[in-house]
Design goal:
Number of strands: 11
Distance between the termini: 40 Å
Helix content: under 10%
Largest sheet: 7 strands, mixed
Oligomer: single chain
Strand content: over 45%
Length: 114
């Protein structure tokens, strides 16, 4: 099992940036696929980005491609989500997850509003 703790959310104006962090414990992330999801009010949880350890590849939802970047620091057992050019529709609770272990963090709120 792995425990995940997100941080870095907050209130930002449209066009602004935030960097979310996901610190893992109980398991090294160097051999783990880590995903970011988000859930907007009244909507289902949706996939945002993936960091694949095996190939080093990253994957993004079309809605965030070119604006968000997922990265990892294996030495710190931490995965990041750099979010640029934020839009109001990016508002929601952001979760990191190791989906093949059904491990989820508690989430961090991101609000994009003027």
């Amino acid at each position: 099992q792995v425990q995940l703790v997100e941080s870095g959310g907050g209130l930002v104006q449209p066009g602004g940036s935030l960097r979310l962090s996901c610190v893992a414990s109980g398991r090294t992330i160097s051999t783990t696929i880590i995903d970011w999801f988000r859930q907007a009010p009244g909507k289902e949880r949706e996939f945002v980005a993936r960091s694949s350890w095996r190939s080093g590849s990253t994957y993004y939802a079309d809605s965030v491609k070119g604006r968000f970047t997922i990265s990892r620091d294996n030495a710190k057992n931490t995965v990041y989500l750099q979010m640029n050019s934020l839009k109001p529709e990016d508002t929601g609770v952001y979760y990191c997850a190791v989906t093949n272990l059904n491990s989820w963090g508690q989430g961090t709120q991101v609000t994009v509003s003027s």
